[in-house]
């Protein structure tokens, strides 16, 4: 028997959607993984309320929603510093909170970061599509009716675990603390050889600023020096611009620079291939950082080796394990 809807959306916020860890194994068919842009914050929020780390949450972007709880619940907010308010009273992030039946949850303006994960004990209960509850809005699949939330939507919640405990708190050293300036480590891409030597250097020297075109599909950056590609006779199937290639697959995190002007980091809702040269790929350990960047914040790209990327992934997974141990029981 389906769970009854207990959450009513009064105001949807800027771009609130249901996300979990994402769907894997379909990218070759053009269906990206989707899932929370900050996977660590997703796990932290879920573990705080006693859920499995991969349960579905609400991802709240820059401006949080206003929600009416028709039944009592336990929630936690992690990731961006977006202070939750119960019936107008400010509450803490990174702690399991009791929400009485009939209460309204709203959010203060975001103070740091871009995306908060709102977990509810029991998990947001929407149908699985291809093994995930995550919203992929471009394909209109997953989540709540395949789209971001709208006023009037009603959401069901699963059965809370016996592990749910009000007051469980995330240790400060394990909380997400997004700085205004990020360093994003990059593994040089399949086509970095297409750059002229000077541009291959300036890309890593310059500070790049997030533009307003920054969403789940990709983050665009500006204000660095334009990049120049080596001249060549374009092969059959490639476009006329020097940044064009014959269509190729895009990994999540790959960086393309159309016309050499504004780098774009493709993220979890990105298309799976196209005709722009990939000059590098942001390593998996740093993808959460990208999703927490606000427009007009800046980043430096740091070139790393494959060995360094693997070591960073190992460190990232170790932090996940410390998170599980801290919030177990």
Automatic annotation (TrEMBL):
SMART domains: AHS2 (SM00797). InterPro entries: CT_A_B, Cyclophilin-like_dom_sf, PxpC. SUPFAM superfamilies: Cyclophilin-like. Keywords: ATP-binding, Hydrolase, Nucleotide-binding. It is an enzyme of class 3 (hydrolase). The keyword Endoplasmic reticulum does not apply. GO terms for molecular function: 5-oxoprolinase (ATP-hydrolyzing) activity; ATP binding. Residues 28-320 form the Carboxyltransferase domain. Its EC number is 3.5.2.9. This is 5-oxoprolinase subunit C. The gene is pxpC_1.
């Amino acid at each position: 028997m389906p769970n009854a809807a207990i959450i009513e959306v009064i105001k949807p916020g800027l771009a609130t959607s249901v996300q979990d860890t994402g769907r894997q194994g379909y990218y070759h068919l053009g269906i990206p993984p989707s899932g929370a842009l900050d996977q660590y914050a997703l796990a932290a929020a879920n573990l705080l309320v006693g859920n499995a780390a991969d349960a579905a949450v609400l991802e709240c972007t820059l401006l949080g929603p206003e929600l009416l709880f028709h039944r009592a619940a336990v929630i936690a907010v992690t990731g961006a510093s977006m202070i939750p308010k119960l019936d107008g009273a400010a509450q803490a992030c990174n702690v399991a909170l009791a929400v009485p039946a009939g209460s309204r949850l709203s959010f203060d303006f975001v103070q740091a970061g871009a995306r908060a994960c709102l977990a509810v004990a029991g998990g947001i209960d929407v149908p699985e599509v291809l093994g995930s509850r995550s919203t992929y809005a471009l394909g209109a699949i997953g989540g709540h009716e395949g789209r971001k939330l709208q006023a009037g939507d009603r959401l069901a919640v699963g059965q809370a675990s016996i592990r749910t405990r009000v007051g469980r708190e995330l240790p400060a050293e394990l909380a997400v603390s997004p700085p205004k300036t990020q360093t994003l480590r990059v593994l040089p891409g399949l086509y970095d050889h297409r750059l002229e030597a000077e541009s291959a250097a300036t890309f890593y020297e310059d500070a790049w600023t997030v533009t307003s075109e920054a969403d789940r599909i990709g983050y665009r950056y500006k204000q660095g020096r334009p990049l120049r590609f080596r001249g060549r006779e374009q092969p059959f199937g490639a476009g006329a611009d020097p940044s064009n290639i014959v269509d190729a697959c895009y990994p999540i995190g790959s960086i393309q620079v159309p016309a050499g002007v504004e780098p774009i980091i493709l993220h979890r809702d990105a298309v799976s291939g196209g005709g722009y040269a990939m000059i590098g790929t942001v390593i998996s350990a740093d993808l959460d950082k990208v999703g927490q960047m606000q427009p007009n914040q800046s980043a430096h790209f740091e070139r790393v080796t494959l060995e360094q990327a693997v070591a960073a992934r190992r460190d990232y997974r170790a932090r996940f394990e410390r998170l599980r141990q801290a919030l177990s029981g």
